């Protein structure tokens, strides 16, 4: 029996077929009109959205609100629970850098971070930037950070007030708190100071929302006079700019999902042309960190699928001078690396579990930091200073609140700096976390992390929220998440399926879930549902699937492939119109995404691969479960029209009576609401859908 009763008639989007023929294959898209022709300008000024599109999105919101009206009180309760687990007046542990230590804090009732500094060894805190003050009067506001100059006198800070990820940069006098006259528009969100504190480097987002240019800005001059340092002509590459801990190099990082190139500028000559470290080669990735007179390079060059670390002279960084210092170990994936005056450190993952490895640069002696829990998350933060023996790392598990440690790499002493407080209370012994393995169709074992209360019956009666992502090599950590405790406390099993497309089991796990092998991602997720049903952690009639962005594609695919195995589906900013998006090379992420999904413009084979699973293109006449799709009007990553078109087609095709709901945030982009508590309201909404569908209200 449906839990959705007495619903009004849902919106029926008009059909205006648009034909498209590629490689001799013709398709027709009934809902192409939902894509605004002026989307570039609309991201910067949402008020210019075409009236007929706005009317449809608002009608969908009205229907969604009616369907979810009986969850209003539940949403408030969930929000209260989640907020109660957050320390409102929380503060980070300051990071030492020169004469100061820098940190962030939140105030009671505040939505945005405040940036502060204090004397290196403690003392009165000086407020540098009040995010709540800057947020006043704005429906959306997101800070990109505060980067201080080498002499600690100035700071670059950035904000996005539309959700479009076009950031405005300003420069603040950190002593007086006043902003200088410099205002830079349409940036990537941050800047890298030159050592003299009189200029900085930044990325500019072009009209198609791509960081295609690096500029050098001199303080006190207009943005129009900024010098173009480097322009990336290939629209398929992302670009960013960073700096070394010793302030002697500016790094320009150019990459797509499988190929890298670095260009460097010695800060002794800021006007010099960027120097290529190693010319890009398709399929070869590398990352650079400085080690004084050498660079350490993390790379997969030479068939090092799970990566190795090389060393090269800083003044002669070309590949011909690379020398191996950490060998490739198949099955042990090196995730990132850092170098300090006396130590080289890296974070690696083996069998799904991370550890930190530390090598003495003089003796070559190594030791590691690891933990014993069945599933856990480890974060390597490193240090802000080069000449240090102390680094910082974080640890948590699904049941253990986050802990922050300083670690002395010489004495091997751990100092616990902070344990995440849960003001409303949390007893880890009330919960169980497990790592189980679901057999996939081809014999692979899919890791699944579980969290549930120890008194939850494991007889098939428990509802389950099964979360998945599975793309870009991103691993979903088995870390502490106070929000999902609200589900566990209501008898849910909370599960994360570590499916192919991520790097949970090494780089090969990623390769087996992309391009021609993309459907492994979807099959793995269904295999996880099958296992949880078979082992009676839950049952098909109780599983609510959840995923966002590329994980939203996963949701669309599994809804098409096995709708009978899911009681409901939550798809946040879902990338579901895959074929049309990969055919539109004007969209921000399309060219850089071709190595992940394929280029259907140039390749008939890749066109057919994508067409075979693209959720929007494969919606069929079948009984879909209740579906909740969420979008953001100014989202430059997954455009609002993807979930809007998908919902329109689902509603037209479904043979069942389960509601298909669309919620479009008219004031936000890809990340949803910007404030820390506003975001909790969105989570409470999603969870209330899951609880309602599971019949647990």
Task: Give structural notes.
Helix 3 (72-84) crosses helix 13 (676-693) and helix 7 (519-534) packs across helix 8 (550-561). The chain has 13 helices and 37 strands. The longest helix is centred in the C-terminal third of the chain and has 18 residues, at 676-693. Strand 1 (18-22) and strand 2 (25-29) form a beta hairpin. The chain is of the alpha+beta class. The strands form 8 sheets. Strands 30-31-33-32-34-35-36-37 form an 8-stranded mixed β-sheet, with helices on both faces.
Number of strands: 37
Main pleated-sheet profile: 8 strands, mixed
Shape: globular
Strand order of the largest sheet: 30-31-33-32-34-35-36-37
Average pLDDT number: 94
Quick gist of this model?
By secondary structure, this protein is α+β, with helices and mostly antiparallel strands. It contains 13 helices and 37 strands. The protein has an 8-stranded mixed β-sheet, sandwiched between helices. A 7-stranded antiparallel β-sheet has the order 7-8-9-10-11-12-13, with no helix packed on it.
Secondary-structure map with pairings?
Blueprint: E1 18-22, E2 25-29, H1 39-44, H2 51-67, H3 72-84, E3 95-97, E4 100-105, E5 114-119, E6 126-130, H4 131-135, E7 142-148, E8 154-160, E9 167-173, E10 179-193, E11 199-205, E12 211-218, E13 227-231, E14 238-243, E15 249-255, E16 260-266, E17 275-276, E18 286-290, E19 294-299, E20 308-313, E21 323-326, E22 332-339, E23 343-350, E24 353-360, E25 366-369, E26 377-382, E27 390-396, E28 403-408, E29 414-419, E30 431-439, E31 445-453, E32 464-468, H5 485-488, E33 493-497, H6 507-511, H7 519-534, E34 543-548, H8 550-561, E35 568-572, H9 578-582, H10 590-597, H11 604-613, E36 627-632, H12 641-653, E37 660-665, H13 676-693
Parallel strand pairs: 32-33, 32-34, 34-35, 35-36, 36-37
Antiparallel strand pairs: 1-2, 3-4, 4-5, 5-6, 7-8, 8-9, 9-10, 10-11, 11-12, 12-13, 14-15, 15-16, 16-17, 18-19, 19-20, 20-21, 22-23, 23-24, 24-25, 26-27, 27-28, 28-29, 30-31, 31-33
């Amino acid at each position: 029996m449906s839990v959705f009763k007495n619903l009004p008639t849902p919106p029926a989007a008009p059909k205006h077929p648009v034909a498209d023929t590629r490689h001799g294959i013709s398709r027709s898209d009934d809902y192409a009109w939902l894509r605004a022709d002026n989307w570039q300008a609309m991201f910067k000024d949402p008020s210019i959205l075409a009236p007929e599109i706005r009317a449809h999105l608002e009608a969908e919101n009205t229907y969604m609100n009616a369907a979810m009206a009986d969850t209003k009180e539940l949403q408030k309760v969930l929000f209260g629970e989640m907020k109660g687990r957050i320390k409102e007046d929380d503060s980070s542990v300051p990071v030492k850098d020169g004469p100061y230590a820098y940190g962030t804090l939140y105030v009671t009732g505040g939505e945005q971070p405040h940036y502060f500094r204090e004397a290196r060894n403690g003392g009165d805190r000086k407020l540098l930037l009040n995010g709540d003050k800057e947020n006043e009067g704005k429906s959306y506001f997101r800070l990109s950070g505060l980067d201080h100059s080498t002499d600690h006198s100035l700071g670059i800070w950035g904000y996005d007030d539309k959700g479009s990820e076009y950031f405005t940069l300003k420069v603040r006098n950190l002593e007086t708190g006043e902003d200088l006259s410099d205002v830079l528009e349409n940036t990537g969100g941050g800047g890298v100071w030159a050592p003299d504190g009189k200029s900085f480097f930044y990325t500019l987002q072009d009209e198609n929302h791509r960081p295609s240019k690096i500029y050098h800005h001199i303080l006190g001059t207009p943005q129009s006079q900024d010098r173009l340092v480097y322009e990336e002509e290939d629209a398929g590459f992302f670009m960013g700019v960073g700096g070394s801990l010793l302030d002697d190099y500016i790094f320009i990082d150019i990459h797509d999902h499988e190929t890298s190139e670095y260009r460097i500028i010695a800060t002794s000559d800021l006007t010099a042309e960027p120097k290529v470290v190693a010319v890009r080669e398709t399929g070869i990735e590398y990352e650079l960190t400085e080690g004084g007179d050498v660079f350490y390079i993390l790379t997969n060059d030479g068939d090092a699928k799970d990566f190795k670390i090389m060393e090269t002279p800083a003044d002669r960084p070309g590949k011909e001078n690379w020398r191996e210092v950490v060998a490739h170990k198949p099955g042990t994936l090196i995730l990132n690396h850092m170098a300090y005056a006396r130590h080289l450190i890296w974070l690696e993952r083996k069998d799904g579990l991370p550890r930190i490895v530390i090598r003495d640069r003089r003796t070559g002696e190594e030791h590691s930091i690891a933990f014993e829990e069945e599933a856990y998350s480890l974060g390597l933060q490193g240090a802000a200073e080069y000449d240090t023996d102390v680094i910082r790392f974080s640890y948590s598990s699904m049941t253990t609140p986050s802990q922050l440690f300083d670690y002395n790499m010489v004495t091997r002493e751990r100092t616990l700096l902070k344990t995440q407080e849960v003001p409303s209370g949390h007893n880890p012994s009330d919960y169980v976390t497990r790592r189980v393995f679901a057999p996939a169709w081809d014999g692979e074992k899919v890791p699944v992390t579980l969290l549930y209360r120890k008194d939850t019956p494991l007889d098939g009666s428990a509802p389950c929220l099964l979360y998945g992502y599975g793309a870009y090599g991103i691993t979903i950590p088995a870390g502490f998440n106070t929000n999902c405790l609200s589900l566990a406390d209501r008898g849910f099993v909370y599960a994360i399926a570590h499916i192919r497309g991520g790097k949970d089991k090494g780089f090969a796990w990623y390769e087996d879930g992309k391009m021609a092998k993309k459907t492994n991602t979807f099959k793995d997720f269904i295999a996880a549902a099958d296992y949880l049903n078979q082992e009676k952690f839950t049952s098909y009639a109780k599983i609510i699937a959840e995923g966002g962005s590329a994980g939203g594609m996963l949701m669309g695919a599994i809804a098409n492939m096995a709708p009978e195995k899911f009681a409901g589906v939550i798809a946040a900013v879902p990338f579901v119109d895959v074929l049309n998006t990969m055919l539109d090379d004007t969209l921000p992420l399309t060219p850089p995404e071709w190595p992940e999904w394929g280029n259907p413009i140039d390749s008939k084979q890749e066109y057919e691969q994508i067409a075979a699973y693209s959720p929007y293109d494969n919606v069929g006449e079948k009984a879909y479960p209740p579906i909740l799709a969420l979008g953001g009007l100014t989202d430059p990553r997954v455009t609002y029209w993807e979930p809007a078109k998908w919902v329109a087609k689902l509603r037209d095709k479904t043979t069942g009576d389960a509601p298909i709901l669309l919620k479009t945030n008219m004031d936000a982009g890809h990340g949803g609401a910007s404030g820390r508590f506003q975001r909790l309201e969105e989570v409470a909404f999603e969870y209330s859908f899951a609880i309602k569908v599971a019949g647990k209200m």
